[in-house]
Amino acid sequence: MFKAKLKADVLKEIIEVTGHIVDEIVMDLDSEGLTIKAVDPSHVAMVDLMLTKNAFQEFEADDVSIAVEMDKMREVIKLAKAGDVISMEHDSERNRLIVTVGNIIRKMGLLSPSSITSPKVPDLELPANVILKTDEIKQGIKAAESISDHVTLIMEPESFSMEADGDTDEVKLKLTKDQLIEISCKERQRSMFPLDYFSNMVKAATNSSSLKILLGTDFPVRLEFTIAGGNGEVVYLLAPRIED
Amino acid sequence: MGVKLGDIAPRTPAEISDFSGWVMAIDAFNTLYQFISTIRQPDGTPLMDDRGRITSHLSGLLYRTSSLVQSGIKPVFVFDGTSPDEKEGTVESRRHIRETAEREWQEAIDEGDMEKAARKARQSSRLTSDIIEESKALLRLMGIPVVQAPSEGEAQAAYLAEKGDVEAAVSQDFDSLLFGTPILVRNLTISGRRKVARRDIYITVTPEIIELNTVLSQNGITREQLIDIAILVGTDFNKGVRGIGAKTGLKLVKKHGTLEGVMAEKGIEIPNYKRLREIFLHPPVTDNYEIKWAEVDANGIRELLCREHDFSEKRVDSAIKRLDRHFQATKQKSLDGWF
Questions:
Q1: Start-end ranges of CATH 3.10.150.10 in chain A?
Q2: Whole-number Å distance between alpha carbons of B31 and B77
Q3: Preferred mutation among B74, B333, B336 to probe A, highest tally of A CBs within 10 A
Q4: Pick the CATH number of A128-238 from 2.40.30.90, 3.70.10.10, 3.30.1050.10, 1.10.340.30
Q5: How far is A219 from chain B (nearest CA, A)?
Q6: Residue A44 in contact with partner chain B when CB distance is under 8 A
Q7: Which residues neighbour B39 within 8 Å (Cβ) at sequence distance 6 or greater?
Q8: According to the model, what pLDDT value does residue A156 have?
Q9: Lowest-confidence range among A186-200, A201-215, B107-121?
């Protein structure tokens, strides 16, 4: 059983956070809230999203998994106006999600959850991390996107940098300790990542004012931020580019 | 330098870009010698820093290697260790040539004969231990692997190629084939233009590939017979027989089967020929090496070249960038390895 009401903005966040990773998601529901774990088809990026029931206007659920197509969710969100509340109810008999937006009722055919693999989230020990303003790194990505298809993240005890190196141009964003909300780094860590994935992840974090980045040399990077006004958490993992 | 087997070694012309993605073992002494002898000013004076120390080798290593790297080549430099005693004769005669050339170089400058001066200057080139150590240091800063051979660098390079750790050995000398490299690449580390000796014209020099198997099959000989031919012609370790070049050597060895047969037939005596064969067939080589490309130490390179040896910062930085680019020829990993 699943029955809930949530603000259109919150649903939009869910779509923005997961939609660039996969085309189909499995929403795992229980009495406490919603989780979505998904890995992209090439296994380069992973998302682990959790929303508590406080993120919803109304929430009621037994243990159930619902598999939806992202495109259908996007169609629904386009119908919503700012401030709208969307209601959802699972029709388990016909395996449909009944979504109400304003005066429109959409009965959405669902996929079989078993047809979609739900990944385990690897437990990584990453030696360094920073918390920074999302806007700062968003600016850096904006500067990097036109010149390169990958970025290098570097953490040092006193600073965080992001570098992009193109054929003729270079972009470097450097934030020193006093420009960061928090930094914990004993030794220099450095890894390179595909910029398109990284950019989508950071863009999905823009509703959160701060972003935590955990880094280890030649390890996946882990991004953490909150959504739904603090009632939800997102973890991204992105695999590095490594020299042969 | 090296054995003159060019006449019987079929070569395939190649472009630098053909070697993209290849791991190549470069004969360091051979290459450094080329740098020292060719990277010179018009009157033959080598490149020098403000304190008069030679920098031709550093210049060649940085600029030439970074452009190879930019072409997608993964170079490994193999340095000579202790030469076999048999090389003493060659070493001695080279020393003599050098000393004479050095004297004549000065005379030519005094006479105002710049063409002769440049030629004599090239002949006077020598690798000092400072040059060798500094070259190793620069390569390490550049993140390029350095392999120390116990004896001949070419033997070690051939060993790496035979083992499959590298795709080819790079040297100007054909000796690499005698040491058993399946593929020898020549003209890789010299620039596209080379002056023709004693003439005021330049020819374009392009890389060439020589495959040991092709050399052997086209001539209808074994590697042992190729070595016998080389011993007749003369190597770095013996003088050879007067009047016998590669073609005659080939004819004789094919006719009589082995060096012993040729010697008996021709009444020639090469006293240490068995030992010479051993030098090529079973040279001292080592498994104690690591082929791993490291991150470029840009600050270290600037410190050594710009601060210590007065290189132009701008040119050094652009070479560093070319090197760096290579190290970004990276592979995207999947998360699977971390589950």
A1: 2-115
A2: 9
A3: B333
A4: 3.70.10.10
A5: 9
A6: yes
A7: B46, B47, B56, B57, B59, B60
A8: 96
A9: B107-121
Numbered ranges of CATH 3.70.10.10 in chain A: 128-238
**Neighbouring C-beta atoms of residue B22, cutoff 10 Å:** 19
- B339, closest residue in chain A (CA to CA): A122
The token pair that represents A66 in the structure block: 């619902």
Who among B324, B327, B335 is closest to A43 (CB)? B335
Residue A186 reports pLDDT greater than 60:
yes
Distance (Å, rounded) from C-alpha A216 to C-alpha B333? 14
What average pLDDT score do residues A168-187 get? 93
A108–B contact, CB cutoff 8 A: no
Task: Give pLDDT, residue B196.
Answer: 61
Q: Given this model, what pLDDT does residue B197 score?
A: 60
Question: Looking at domain A2-115, which of 3.30.420.40, 3.10.150.10, 3.30.70.970, 2.40.340.10 is its CATH number?
Answer: 3.10.150.10
CB–CB of B338 and A43 under 8 A? Answer: no
Instruction: Return residue ranges of chain B for CATH 1.10.150.20.
Output: 220-282
CA distance B185 to B302: 31
Contact A122 B335 (CB under 8 A): yes
Tokens standing for residue B327: 């190290």
Q: Could you tell me which CATH number the domain at B1-218 has?
A: 3.40.50.1010
User: Cβ separation of B331 and A244 shorter than 8 Å?
Assistant: yes
Q: What rounded mean pLDDT belongs to chain A? A: 92
How does B300-312 read in b/e, with b if 16+ C-beta sit within 10 Å?
Answer: ebbebbbeebebe
pLDDT value for B192? 60
The percent of residues above 90 in pLDDT, for chain A, comes to 78
Please report residues of A whose CB lies closer than 8 A to that of B332: 44, 194, 239, 241
CATH of B220-282, one of 3.30.70.1140, 1.10.150.20, 3.40.50.12280, 1.10.10.10: 1.10.150.20
Residue A160: the pLDDT is 97
Whether residue B250 contacts residue B221, with contact meaning beta carbons closer than 8 Å, is answered with yes
Separation between Cα atoms, residue B288 and residue A63, nearest integer Å: 60
Q: What are the residue ranges in chain B where pLDDT is below 70?
A: 1-2, 191-202, 325-330
List the single residue in A119, A124, A243 with the smallest CB-CB distance to B330. Answer: A243
For chain A, say whether B292 makes contact (Cβ under 8 Å): no
Which residues on chain B are in Cβ contact (under 8 Å) with A165? 324-325, 328
Residue to test with chain A: of B70, B320, B330, most A Cβ within 10 A? B330
Question: DSSP letters along B45-85, please?
Answer: PBPB-TTS-B-HHHHHHHHHHHHHHHTT-EEEEEE--PPPG
Q: Does B331 touch chain A (CB under 8 A)?
A: yes
pTM for the model: 0.59
